[in-house]
């Protein structure tokens, strides 16, 4: 069952994020890794900034979480994590489909450039990378992240984004040629 996470589940959301984020250890740049990956304060800040966390629950246990945030004229998918021992069972895909269905605006997701599995996950579900110039612009416009994270991240967008930004199609074609 997919449902909105409750305020009282903050500790469980924190645990899922930090468990699942271990996949990034020794993958993302060393200067961006820390333990815990997301501190209690950072998680509270994200929630205060409007990230609504949704969870996938099975047999009364929360197995995965994903956030959604409305920012200006887009919807952001934020903080997508599934418990390490429950990966590759479709949980993340179900959460993404549910949240994407709720979105009425173009939807963007950012992730680490080196996180090949994340790029494949989003691409399999119809999201495509934006050009490097667009990536830099939208990360600075819609996210509040350090410049080093901008440098080492990618942004993927849904078809609604590309429909509104046809120039992006040309930029991507030029990069590939």
Number of strands: 7
Output the structural class. Answer: alpha+beta
Largest sheet: 7 strands, mixed
Distance from first to last alpha carbon? 44 Å
> What portion of residues is helical?
40-55%
CATH superfamily: Gcn5-related N-acetyltransferase (GNAT)
Low confidence ranges: none
The radius of gyration computed from the alpha-carbon positions, rounded to a whole number of angstroms, is 16 Å
Shape-level CATH architecture: 3-Layer(aba) Sandwich
Topology pattern, helix = H, strand = E: EHHEEEHEHEHHEHH
Structure write-up:
This protein has one domain (2-176): Aminopeptidase. Helix content is 42%, strand content 24%. The protein is built from eight helices and seven strands. It has helices at 10-20, 40-48, 91-102, 116-124, 132-142, 147-151, 159-164, 166-176, and strands at residues 2-4, 52-58, 61-71, 74-82, 107-112, 128-129, 153-157.
Descriptive terms for the model:
177 residues; 7-stranded mixed beta sheet; 7 strands
Summarize this entry quickly.
The protein is α+β, with helices and mostly antiparallel strands and 177 residues long. It is built from eight helices and seven strands. It has helices at 10-20, 40-48, 91-102, 116-124, 132-142, 147-151, 159-164, 166-176; strands at 2-4, 52-58, 61-71, 74-82, 107-112, 128-129, 153-157.
């Amino acid at each position: 069952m997919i449902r909105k996470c409750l305020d009282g589940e903050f500790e469980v959301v924190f645990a899922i994020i930090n468990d699942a984020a271990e996949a990034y250890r020794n993958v993302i740049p060393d200067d961006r890794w820390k333990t815990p990956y997301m501190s209690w304060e950072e998680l509270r800040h994200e929630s205060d900034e409007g990230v609504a966390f949704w969870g996938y629950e099975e047999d009364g246990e929360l197995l995965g979480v994903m956030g959604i945030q409305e920012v200006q004229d887009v919807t952001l998918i934020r903080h997508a994590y599934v418990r390490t021992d429950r990966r590759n069972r479709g949980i993340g895909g179900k959460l993404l489909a549910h949240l994407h269905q709720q979105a009425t605006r173009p939807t963007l997701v950012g992730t680490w450039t080196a996180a090949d599995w994340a790029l494949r996950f989003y691409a399999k579900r119809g999201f495509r990378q934006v050009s490097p110039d667009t990536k830099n612009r939208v990360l600075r416009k819609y996210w509040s992240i350090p410049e080093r994270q901008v440098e080492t991240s990618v942004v993927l967008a849904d078809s609604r984004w590309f429909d509104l930004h046809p120039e992006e199609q040309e930029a991507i074609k030029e990069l590939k040629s």
